[in-house]
């Protein structure tokens, strides 16, 4: 592949329904009824077990004969009834996927409740929702729209935190929020439908990832103040803490003190990696790549190119402006081919990318790791997160020679 050859053929995202299933299958008492074709069912059963909540999903048999024969809605209703026979099932999300007939399933023909179980339609067709992170937003906002109690009294100094994060990050956030005087915190996506109900009573919401746009507009409509951004990197940490303090009208002195302390701790950790130098390309598809780029830039690394599967959003605008100003070329809704061209053009020392991009980089003797497994599965927030991410990157940059030797070895084999 030359620098200007191959056209953009492969958009990068997992099936969007998978993102929704990650949110829906983790709810206690939920059994998903999937309304898609057999291909969707095969793939989504696999990923639900492997990457979501290890739960089975149930589906009516929808082959061409049922889809075109006019019995589909009856088959779906019968499946919902069958699922509801289990008294342990309290929630049946009905997930419709790409096939035109299933995507357009009539909500009014579905029951609202069967036996013990509340029924909720969530439409997740890939032709409309273009990436799996954005499908998490669709699922979360559907759940909040249906279950959140927006009409009751608000809880004093209460915050909703939205975003799937590593457990250690959740603990770190909880600790900092407590120190600045936040009295109650609800986290979504949640395992308990009750948390979605309670989420309606908060005064403000911290949206940790920029793709929660539907959730943001729903909450704003209901009078909840939105705080965007996240505590990644020394500069952003202080600003994030202060914005939460402002949104909840917390004690200004306490907030400033905690913000300064956390900023200093992170700056110290980043400072310890003072010798870091190298060119890194960040090309994940999780929608949370730009804060990681911000951290790498703060540590002195060069990031000439970053890409993600999600669209450019107002919630991510601050990062977009900062990173563009610092010289990072950013691609939204990226294609694999764009990422590959970036590898050829910028000749990075490290690629943190998708599996297909990583293979492409490794074939060229460039160290490469899978963004999802290596970034989304470790802490990134506050000082601890900075230490973990930069430690990993420093280690990989240090092993650059190993990749070069490996390439030499394989290319010189008879
Ligand atoms: S057809 Fe659509 S819903 Fe089904 S697996 Fe493919 S992208 Fe996912």
Q: What compounds sit in this structure?
A: iron/sulfur cluster
SS-based class: alpha/beta
Shape: globular
Text of the CATH class of the largest domain: Alpha Beta
Distinct helical segment count: 18
**Main beta-sheet strand count, sense and barrel state:** 5 strands, parallel
Write the CATH fold name of the largest domain.
Rossmann fold
Instruction: Bin the helical content.
Output: 40-55%
**CATH homologous superfamily heading of the largest domain:** Nitrogenase molybdenum iron protein domain
Supply Rg.
23 Å
Unreliable stretches covering 5 or more consecutive residues:
none
Fraction in beta strands: 5-15%
Mean pLDDT across residues = 92
How would you characterize this protein structure?
This protein is globular. The chain has 3 domains: 16-129, Rossmann fold (3-Layer(aba) Sandwich); 158-269, Rossmann fold; 272-411, 3-Layer(aba) Sandwich (Rossmann fold), CATH 3.40.50.1980. Helix 6 (132-147) packs parallel to helix 9, helix 11 packs parallel to helix 17 (382-398) and helix 12 (289-298) runs parallel beside helix 13 (317-325). The strands form 3 sheets. Strands 11-10-9-12-13 form a 5-stranded parallel β-sheet, with helices on both faces. Strands 1-2-4-3 form a 4-stranded mixed β-sheet, sandwiched between helices. The chain is of the alpha/beta class and 414 residues long. The chain contains 18 helices and 13 strands. It is 48% helix and 14% strand. The structure holds iron/sulfur cluster.
